[in-house]
Every structure is written in C-alpha cells, then in structure tokens.
C-alpha cells in the first residue's frame, strides 16, 4: 500500500534499486512514482529520492532540455502539443514537465495540462507530468530540476519545461535548460513592457505564435519588432551568428514548427561543438548545489525551536513598531553568528 506524504500525494513503498531500474528501463509508471517521490516533503522520502538520483547518475544519458515561457493565453499548451507530436512523429521520445501555479491561500493547483494536451497525452512516446509550483519563485517547482534528471535517465530525447508564466523571476528556468524559448502573441509587446528585458536576456529563440488568419500581419510586425530589439539588446559568446532570433509559428495550424526545431538543433549543435553546452551544464550543477545548501540551511533554522522562538519574539517587536524589520533581522543574524 502507498504512503501518504505531507502534501497529500501518494508515494509507493518500493525498493530504491527496483525504482531506479524501472526508470532506467523507461517504465512510465516507475518514472511517475520517482517524480512523486522527489516532490514529497517527508524526510524519509527525501532520503530515498536522493538515493534514487544518485543511483541513476551513472546512466550518463542526456536529453535536450528546452525551457518554455510565455504570457497566459499565448498558446503554450497548444504549442507544446503540436511541437511534441511533431517530435514523436520523428521517432523521438518527449517528456513534458508542466508547472501550474499554486494558490497562495489553499496551496492547491489545477494541474490541467494533460487535459489540454489530449493528443500528446495518449502518445506512447510522450510523457506529461504536471506539478504544482508550490509558490516557488522562478516559475518552476522546486524539484523540477530533479524531475528533468529522471526523464533523462528514462531515455527521453527532449524534455520540455513549461513555466507558469512570464516575470522577472521566470529567468530561473534558464538554470535548468539548454535552450530557452519565449512565446509571444501577435501585438503582445506591451504586456511584456515591465519584464521583457529580463526575459529577452535569456531567450534563445522568440516564437511569435498564432501567426495565422487575420492575426498573421500583426504577428509579422511583432516578429520584426523583436528581431530588431534582439540585435540591440544582447550578443553573447555562446550565441552563433544570427542568434538570438525571432520566428513566426502557428501551433494551431502546425506551421513553422519544423523550421523552429531546425533552428533549435543548429543552436544546440553549435554550442556542443564550441564547448558551451557542457560548460553551461557544469555551471548549472554548481548553481543548484548552492541553492540546495541555502534551502537546507533555511529549513534547519525553521526547524530549530530556539530560533523559531527568537523569530516569533522579534516578529512581534516589529509588528508592534518597537523595531524595524532590518534591525530585527540583523539582531537575529548576529545572534546566530555568535552561536547564541
């Protein structure tokens, strides 16, 4: 019988080696169970999850990790389904890790991506896993990076990471992907006014979706505008000539997808040849190691009853106007540094 974790998810009781073997053999159920395990917050499940990931580390399998973001209503789910179906039609195995926003009040998520991607969810060469963001900044669930590693170990060729939306914090998805795509709607530049610099600094390819019917002229203008903006905004050492670039696609009519995929492959191949691919993955691994240390330290502080009492006392002082948040925080940090 399965155990129920703190978040209410079900984690099956399974031997770590058996679970790891199932993932390596590409068993979808084993992969789903492994992802559920790594998403659990229970201490014993985290120990098991670490063992599973360590066991699978030796597979040395690598997929093309593609981060994908865009404003609500831009057609991300439609694009992913059409794009994924095109890739599976070429014989590739595609995993989709779709992150849904969690309610700040109830903590719940709709997790409706499988419903929106009905055709792709039935494809035997595709795997779709919706996960709650659990209010995690960066538009991704905290354990999405580990889920990507599991999908790679399971033998998937392409892993699509869909974020919850567009914002400055969404740039975190770049720390777990090889390529980053930004989807835009025709004439949708104004809605990105406050965030577009942060997003465009990491976007490798901008795809202007819905370039069909009456919207095509507007889509062409938007594509031209962003092509010009990209020339002015950045040129990085890990970008070959012509990148980053903006392109037109119609996910609904499945138009432009082959061209977009060809550009993604060209960029990935160039980065591998030039050594940027591996260097980027090494940098990402170090980044996530440091993030795990930070998170672990915060968790330890929150679990310490003495520190919790100090925080409650200082928080009350702040609430009553007796001190400022900055002064209270400095006092607590000084006490921690002195071991008191």
Q: Which descriptor suits the 3D outline?
A: globular
Strand arrangement within the widest β-sheet reads: 5-4-6-3-7-8-9
User: Which band does the percent of strand residues land in?
Assistant: 5-15%
Show unreliable segments: 1-12, 102-112, 135-139
State the helix count. 13
Number of strands: 9
The helix/strand class is alpha/beta
Describe the SSE topology.
Layout (H helix, E strand, L loop, with lengths): L2 E2 L5 E2 L4 H9 L3 H12 L3 H14 L7 E7 L5 H14 L4 E7 L12 H4 L1 H4 L4 E7 L11 H10 L4 E5 L16 E6 L11 H5 L4 E4 L7 H18 L11 E4 L8 H18 L1 H28 L1 H15 L5 H13 L3
Parallel strand pairs: 3-6, 3-7, 4-5, 4-6, 7-8, 8-9
Antiparallel strand pairs: 1-2
